[in-house]
Design brief:
heterodimer, A: elongated, B: 4-stranded parallel sheet, 4-stranded parallel sheet, globular
Chain lengths: 589, 316
């Protein structure tokens, strides 16, 4: 009764949650142009896409991906053998237990007419599968907390996942073990199945079970007479063995039973097996009901992601399906951290301490963003910085065991955020090279982030606007000078004697008829501004941000001024100062 | 066997895989061993504009990884080359910086002591393998092909740090191009920047500079511009294609990667060269390779000359 009721309740919750989750795949609008595609169009396109793939030659590729990547997890194997063992153990063991043990009345019975759970191979296999899962969980804990795989962060979801699997498995094993020692369970079996009534015979059988199978009897204690045992064995073989294999075959449960045997009588007296059964069933039901909200949902989402991305190239998908796929992929992430281990810019995380730089953490933020959760401006700024600080090397996408097209996700989230309007100075670095190449896909506001970044800098440079101001010839801001010490060479600007060679050889200066009008200060003037501590003039000149870093100026300088390096350092300082000014002002809002 | 830690960086595997495959094929023929270190990360170049420490950490981590394997580094990209060279130089020059960087690397059990030599593909070909050895591997050569060599800023400058070639009058790349039988033309803007560093930051300016350079190459008589850097090549290829459509330029100067050029004359498998992957078509270049009959004639001619010389010598 309890089993049925709890099963139906949790199944009901599970199905509702599943519908809710799948519906979100068609509702979350991630990426450029996503706003314009209606949910119904997306559902229709998805169905059309799925059907046309299934009824085409691509079904073969689909099957291949299903066997190699979904079932055998080759993508994990390629990355990390230990992790593959871990995952295959947990998922393989669990799936087999689900099919053979939890669904035995529907599946196992249908396949093996004479199925009895206490008979081999079922009794042995149940323990074998369970042990596999436990071993997998131990490897998982070992990797996370002892081996400390780099940049593998454990969040509440990861711990829940480990915990729920561990509780289901351990309660199962302890249930089995306590039933082995419990006298009342022995008694029940004898009453129900043996058909014995002679007290002498019953005593012999009991003695045999106590001696051989670890039953703890309140009546009998070892040692037993050889004759009684022989009789017991005979009775066991005629009355029990037909449907109960030796408990030793359930090796984990039997081992546990041996350990807890000193408490055997007490365990039986407090009905521990019954409570463990409730715990076991309840844990399974909680696991089922909560599955769509937990990381375990990846069982479905990752499979779909692998199949979808493994078969269809991004280019072949219609925009509606691309948008849907991006939303679905958010659920496919298992937070395994492979992407962050291989990410090209992880060293930026070490220094800037913005978690959103790491792809495995960034995806959680993107999920929050897509779900429409209210995020503070600071959080948004951090997500924006995280998605922009990316070399677009595609490594995360290549290694993702769930086959998520992370690169595509970053690109779209980046463009949406950048064009929404927070100034992002990272766009003034060669990281934008990729943006330029993808120009046609960025939508209409391609230039906006670039303009905004320059404006944000200019806004911090008052002096630029007051062109008539008379400046003293003595250094105004010595802090700026001492700030230029990053590479220990940039200080060379102080020996500049103003020969203008740097400006003469600069290809950017040469590109303009009236360079000062467009560029502001020219290279030799920026060297002077640095010497005089004129922060605003140095930072705010377009020349600084239009520098090619071709090193012509530095190479040609007769005084050995490291012109390009000084420009680099001025840019670093400007970025730092603008960031420090912008972030706190966002707090207030 | 010569062996290097192969630093392919971020751009090549993602956007220019033909550079990687052609380089691997060519280097295999020349007997250079390549070790892939999966833990390599960004060289730091794009981050230099933003944060010096992030640049140093990224760059030095790569050096530390190579040092751990007792390997020197070979890059295919001039910007990776320049960045790694710069970081290597600073780690040797600046003790307090070295300590600071190593303190962070320490977390991963890494440390850079300064024992790695950073080399670019071209310097490996020229200095380690040598023009003569490359000549020995040629199966055919080009005839009537005029190439504009593009050196790349971050390989040449700052010369004090990179030490690639003479920064004012370099010849290394020209020699490497001429090995293939092609003519390396003289052009005034040879040492100028390709414009790529500003692509995505200031597109108009970037296009101005690229177009100016390519026009100069074309006017100087080049059939192709040749680069050995993913940024330069993509700028000359994909970005030039965008320029063509935007600025009414009719005659492009297509770009060929050096490893594609060399691979063709070494008879490397066409599939590895990926000529068809270039955005501005270059497959026509194959027609300028000498046919076998021509090669045979040439050999005969050379043999005749040789025997004439010998007879002349004996007469004397």
């Amino acid at each position: 009764m309890f089993l049925k009721v709890s099963l139906y309740i949790s199944l009901f919750i599970f199905l509702l949650a599943l519908i809710y989750k799948v519906a979100s795949w068609f509702q979350y609008r991630i990426g450029i142009g996503a706003e314009k595609i209606s949910t119904s169009t997306r559902i229709f396109s998805a169905m059309k896409g799925i059907l046309s793939t299934i009824f085409s030659a691509e079904i073969l590729a689909l099957l291949r991906v299903f066997f190699l990547d979904v079932l055998l997890q080759f993508r994990i194997l390629k990355e990390d053998f230990l992790r593959w063992v871990m995952h295959i153990f947990i998922y393989g063991g669990f799936m087999l237990l689900l099919l053979m043990h939890a669904l035995d009345k529907t599946i196992t019975v249908a396949l093996w007419k004479d199925y009895i759970p206490t008979l081999n191979p079922f009794m042995f296999l149940r323990d074998l599968f369970g042990t596999m899962v436990i071993a997998g969980v131990i490897i998982a804990i070992f990797r996370r907390f002892i081996l400390k795989v780099p940049r593998l962060f454990s969040n509440a979801m990861d711990i829940y996942a480990i915990l729920i699997v561990a509780v289901i498995m351990l309660s199962g094993f302890f249930l089995e073990a306590t039933k082995m020692v419990a006298y009342s369970d022995y008694k029940r079996m004898v009453d129900e199945y043996s058909g014995l009534s002679d007290p002498q015979e019953l005593k012999s059988l009991e003695a045999y079970w106590v001696k051989e199978f670890g039953t703890i009897s309140p009546n009998l204690k070892e040692p037993f007479d050889e004759k009684i045992l022989a009789k017991g064995k005979e009775l066991h073989e005629s009355s029990c063995a037909g449907c109960h294999a030796r408990p030793q075959w359930a090796f984990t449960g039997y081992g546990t039973a041996k350990i807890i045997s000193p408490f055997g009588l007490g365990i039986d007296r407090v009905h521990l097996p019954r409570y463990l059964w409730y715990l076991h069933v309840l844990a399974c039901m909680i696991g089922l009901a909560y599955l769509p909200f937990s990381k375990m949902f990846h069982i479905f989402a990752s499979s779909i992601s692998l199949l979808a991305n493994g078969v269809i190239g991004k280019e072949k998908l219609v925009p509606a399906n691309r948008t849907t796929l991006r939303a679905m992929e958010l659920d496919a992430c298992t937070h395994c951290g492979t992407c962050s281990l291989r990410c090209s810019v992880t060293m930026a995380f070490e220094e800037m301490l913005n978690l959103n730089i790491l792809p495995s953490e960034k995806i959680a933020s993107v999920k929050a963003l897509a779900s429409g959760k209210a995020l503070s401006q600071r959080e948004l700024k951090h997500i924006q910085e995280g998605v922009t600080l990316c070399t677009n090397c595609y490594r995360c996408t290549v290694v993702c065991p769930a086959g998520i097209n992370l690169q595509d996700l970053w690109f779209h989230v980046r463009e949406t955020l950048l064009q929404k309007g927070y100034p992002e100075l990272l766009v003034l670095s060669p990281l934008s090279f990729y943006r330029g190449l993808m120009k046609e896909e960025t939508g209409k506001d391609y230039e906006k982030p670039l303009i905004q970044a320059r404006e944000a800098i200019a806004a911090q440079c008052d002096l630029l606007k007051r062109k008539d101001e008379v400046l003293p010839l003595t250094p105004k801001n010595r802090k700026l000078q001492s700030g230029l010490n990053l590479s220990a060479q940039a200080k060379t600007f102080s020996v500049c004697f103003g020969c203008q060679t740097c400006t003469t050889v600069c290809p950017v200066v040469a590109n303009y008829k009236n360079p000062q009008e467009t560029l502001g200060l020219l290279p030799h003037q920026i060297m002077h501004a640095a010497g005089l501590g004129l922060r605003d003039l140095a930072f705010g000149s377009n020349m600084l941000w239009d520098c090619l870093t071709c090193y012509q100026c530095q190479e040609q300088c007769p005084q050995g001024v490291h012109v390009t390096d000084v420009l680099y350092e001025l840019k670093n300082l400007a970025v730092k100062q603008v960031r420090e000014k912008i972030l706190p002002s966002m707090e207030g809002k | 066997m010569m062996e290097f830690a192969f630093f392919i960086g971020c751009t090549i595997p993602a956007r220019l895989s033909q550079y990687e495959s052609s380089s691997r094929a060519v280097l295999k023929k020349l007997g250079v061993g390549l070790v892939d270190i999966r833990e390599f990360n960004c060289c730091g170049y794009p981050l230099r504009n933003i944060d010096f420490t992030v640049f140093m950490l990224s760059s030095a981590r790569n050096l530390a990884l190579a040092e751990k394997k007792h390997l020197n580094v070979m890059t295919l990209c001039k910007c990776c080359y320049g960045s790694l060279k710069k970081a290597d130089y600073l780690m040797k020059e600046n003790d307090s910086l070295k300590k600071e960087v190593n303190a962070t690397l320490e977390k991963e059990g890494l440390k850079y002591q300064g024992k790695v030599e950073v080399k670019h593909l071209l310097s490996v070909l020229h200095k380690e393998i040598g023009i003569e050895s490359i000549k020995g591997k040629m199966t055919t050569t080009f005839k009537g092909l005029r190439i504009a060599t593009h050196y790349g800023c971050h390989a040449l400058r700052p010369s004090q740090i990179v030490g690639f070639d003479n920064p004012v009058a370099p010849s290394l790349f020209d020699q490497l191009v001429e090995v293939t039988g092609a003519e390396s033309i003289e052009w005034s803007m040879k040492l100028e920047c390709c414009g790529a560093p500003l692509w995505g930051i200031h597109d108009k300016l970037s296009m101005d500079l690229t177009l100016k350079k390519l026009t100069n190459g074309k006017k100087s008589g080049a059939d192709y511009v040749c680069a050995a850097c993913p940024y330069c090549h993509i700028q000359f290829d994909q970005v030039q294609k965008m320029i063509l459509s935007q600025r009414d330029v009719i005659h492009p100067l297509p770009s060929i990667l050096y490893t594609q050029l060399l691979g063709l004359s070494m008879g490397v498998d066409k599939k590895a060269l990926g000529l068809e992957m270039n955005k501005i078509p270059i497959s026509g270049i194959g027609e300028l390779l000498k046919k076998e009959t021509e090669l045979a004639e040439e050999k005969e001619l050379a043999a005749q000359k040789e025997s004439q010389k010998r007879t002349a010598a004996t007469k004397r």
